[in-house]
Write a sequence for this structure.
């Protein structure tokens, strides 16, 4: 097995790109990453995406983007793992380079969601839940997370407003991210008074749907410095699964897939939670931030919310999260989200995060969650 590093990164702004097609978004991120890496050709292309067939009537994304980018002939496939598709594409690319099959691989996450009405998008997102026993009964992902949040509050004695700092922190960090969808801070009062969606979840608990694409170029670490003076090593990448339906889990408030994925990644990297300098959580809803922090070992069961309440998740806190806005304020183009997380961790480790730079960051971690925890991909990156 060869060591693998990121030698180039690229991303498009997250937002409502009504004037850009799915292929164009993917191409723009790919072109930016290839330019950043200083390469004109790649050996393979892996595209993370969840909903292209449902929302744009377009599958076969590997060949689509390879053709549009002038890369006909290369190996190119789509990788799907619900909202975890972006990080799953990185894992496939990592295995190709680590195994010696390819030297230069592009991993893209891309999604286009905003051309459709909200009901259509909600129904499409529900395909990542259990079709027979969740979606068919009328459960959307908002309602599933609302049930989890209500149960968490009941079990551990928290109030709704205790979750506010997850959203406040994300919005504060997005202010300095030119690629983020939202550039406006929010207050605790705004959080408390936001429009309800599915009690106890309101609008400011929830990440927005969006369009966007992000990309990294992978190469063997042994030659990485021939292309960039600031490569970022892929220290670990791990995937674990759990039941699709929340009611089938041993404990609905324990992200077992997240815990297994994190433990595998820690073992592969030879590190533990105390060694991680920043953590990009999958904050599709504020409850997921708490559950992910607990599953990854940054807080005991029932104490993830306390990290937010005590200010430990800020840029200078014990474990900075959502350092460039997270899903909540950067936006959540679902199949691209995991790749945005990875690009943002790479920016931190390359010391390119500007006003949001986490000082002396050496190890960064991202956890990309598919569904309500049925697929979890954990990635650990290291500054070389």
């Amino acid at each position: 097995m060869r060591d693998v590093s990121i030698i180039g990164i690229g991303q498009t702004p997250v937002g409502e790109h009504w004037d850009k097609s799915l292929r164009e978004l993917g191409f723009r991120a790919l072109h930016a990453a290839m330019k950043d890496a200083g390469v004109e050709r790649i050996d393979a292309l892996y595209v993370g995406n969840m909903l292209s067939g449902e929302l744009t009537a377009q599958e076969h994304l590997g060949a689509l983007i390879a053709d549009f980018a002038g890369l006909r002939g290369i190996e190119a496939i789509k990788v799907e793992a619900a909202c975890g598709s972006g990080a799953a594409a990185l894992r496939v690319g990592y295995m190709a380079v680590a195994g010696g099959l390819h030297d230069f691989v592009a991993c893209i996450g891309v999604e286009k969601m905003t051309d459709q009405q909200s009901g259509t998008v909600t129904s499409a997102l529900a395909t990542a839940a259990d079709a027979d026993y969740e979606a068919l009964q009328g459960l959307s992902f908002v309602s599933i997370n609302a049930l989890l949040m209500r149960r968490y509050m009941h079990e551990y004695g928290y109030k709704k407003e205790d979750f506010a700092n997850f959203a406040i922190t994300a919005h504060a960090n997005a202010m300095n991210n030119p690629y983020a969808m939202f550039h406006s801070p929010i207050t605790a009062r705004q959080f408390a008074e936001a429009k309800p969606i599915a009690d106890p979840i309101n609008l400011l608990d929830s990440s927005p749907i969006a369009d966007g694409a992000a990309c990294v170029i992978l190469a063997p670490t042994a030659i990485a410095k021939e292309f960039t003076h600031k490569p970022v090593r892929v220290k670990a990448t791990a995937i674990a699964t759990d039941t699709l339906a929340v009611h089938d889990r041993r404990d609905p408030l324990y992200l077992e897939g997240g815990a297994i994925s994190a433990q595998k990644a820690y073992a592969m990297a030879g590190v533990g939670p105390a060694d991680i300098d920043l953590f990009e959580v999958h904050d599709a809803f504020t409850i997921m931030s708490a559950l992910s922090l607990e599953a990854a070992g940054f807080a005991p069961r029932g104490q993830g919310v306390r990290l937010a309440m005590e200010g430990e998740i800020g840029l200078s806190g014990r474990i900075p999260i959502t350092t460039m806005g997270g899903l909540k304020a950067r936006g959540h183009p679902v199949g691209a989200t995991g790749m945005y997380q990875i690009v943002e961790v790479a920016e931190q480790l390359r010391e390119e995060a500007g006003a949001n730079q986490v000082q002396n960051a050496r190890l960064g971690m991202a956890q990309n969650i598919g569904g309500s925890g049925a697929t979890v991909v954990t990635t650990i990156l290291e500054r070389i």
Remarks:
- Residues 137-208+235-383 form a domain with the Peroxisomal Thiolase; Chain A, domain 1 fold (CATH 3.40.47.10).
- The longest strand covers residues 232-241.
